[in-house]
From TrEMBL:
Similarity comment text for this entry: Belongs to the thioesterase PaaI family.
One Pfam family it belongs to: 4HBT
PANTHER family, per the entry: PAAI THIOESTERASE, THIOESTERASE SUPERFAMILY MEMBER-RELATED
Molecular function per GO: fatty acyl-CoA hydrolase activity
Sequence ranges assigned to domain Thioesterase in this UniProt record: 59-136
UniProt keyword Hydrolase present: yes
Record key words, sorted: Hydrolase
Record-given protein name: PaaI thioesterase
InterPro entries documented for this protein: ACOT13 (IPR039298), HotDog_dom_sf (IPR029069), PAAI_dom (IPR003736), Thioestr_dom (IPR006683)
Length: 175
């Protein structure tokens, strides 16, 4: 029996759960400190509670942690388009504008899929500190041709995958 398509928020949270269960990097870097707060088709909001493990020697969030969040957020943006397998990175860029925060702060991000094709996906991610100031922006290109081979129905996780429920009301399209 094929798996039923999910609303975007539930689907993206299910993909996040897969990253945390099957990846080597994300569970070690982000652990339970990262969460998806909303997702609609083409757009994902997420946030990270900054801990000591995310900081540099100045005790502010490390640029490498933000770069990893660009990669992670770009993948979630691809997932918000209905792909459970989110492809592989071909290009990643980050521009840092100001400090993203210190231990105990929360950094928020919005990831959007600007273009989804049969071969490539292009995403952009913006990061905000607790004062709602833009602190960094990134772009992330992904090769998705092989990911499409695993799609029987968009927003339907593979059979046997435990589904995460959304929890909040969802809108069907990004603004």
């Amino acid at each position: 029996m094929p798996t039923k398509a999910l609303p975007p928020l539930s689907f993206v949270r299910t993909v996040l759960k897969s990253f945390m269960a099957e990846s080597g990097l994300e569970p070690r870097l982000f652990d339970k400190h990262i969460r998806v707060t909303n997702a609609v088709k083409g757009k994902v909001d997420f946030e990270l509670d900054i801990t000591k493990y995310h900081t540099n020697r100045l005790n502010i969030i490390h640029g490498g942690a933000i770069a990893s969040m660009v990669d992670f957020g770009g993948s979630l943006a691809v997932a918000s388009m209905g792909l459970y397998q989110t492809g592989v990175t071909t290009d990643l860029n980050v521009t840092y504008l100001r400090s993203g925060g210190k231990v105990g702060d929360t950094i928020r991000a919005t990831a959007e899929c600007d273009k989804m094709g049969k071969i490539m996906a292009y995403t952009e991610i913006k990061f905000y500190n607790q004062q709602d100031q833009l602190v960094a922006r990134g772009s992330h290109s992904k090769f998705v041709r092989d990911a499409w081979k695993h799609v029987t129905e968009p927003f339907a996780p593979p059979e046997g995958v435990a589904v995460e429920q959304g929890g909040e009301p969802e809108v069907t399209e990004a603004k």
